[in-house]
Amino acid sequence: MELTILFGALWLGILTSISPCPLATNIAAVAFLSRRSTEKRAVMWSSFAYIAGRMIAYTLLAYILTAGLLSAPEIAEFMRSKFTGLIGPGLILVGMLVAGWISFKIPQFGNLNELGTHLAEKGILGELLMGAVFALAFCPVSAALYFGGLIPSVMQTGSNTLLPIVYGIGTAVPVIVAVIIIAGGLQSASSKIQKMQSLGSKLQVITGGVLVAIGVWLTLQDIMA
Predict the structure, then answer these.
(1) pLDDT in tens, 93-105
(2) Inter-axis angle of helices 186-224 and 162-183, to 10 degrees?
């Protein structure tokens, strides 16, 4: 598999995690996990459990969504051939969503954040489940990046485990940074996290613009072919 595809999955994961809505959730989760700040080892293991839960959730969801299609050669080939002509328009739509130029609402099924916090009270296993629950609480931008960016790449490459794992690693990077920031002291954490939020918004717009430009280019290529 090309390194550019793996890097793309990693970048989608990073961008997902630093987008405003997921970043707010991650900061809340890290602050909650750091409630035992005097026990550095406990905080470390809690954070690892939370990160692992997110990675497992993203990987399992991608596998469930694509395993059946990829296991049937005829269907897989049909999907890959049809996806080719839809990649350009799809990237335009995803790019506009990521950049915030258009928006949509995702139905909420109960208070997943409250459920995740409740699970975290159950120890390491609960904190792992909290990570999984928070990962599945998609916001419009994270949904666009995951379903509009990662899943088509999985279908194109047939890699329904490696790419989601790399994506999950990408979502873990900002969480690790947040843990380090909070561990460094709550007084300086606020300003640093605000800078991270500002950077996330700027990267979101830049990435969205790049996706739109690539989508336009691919669409024109298809039209002129």
Answers:
(1) 878 877 778 776 6
(2) 150
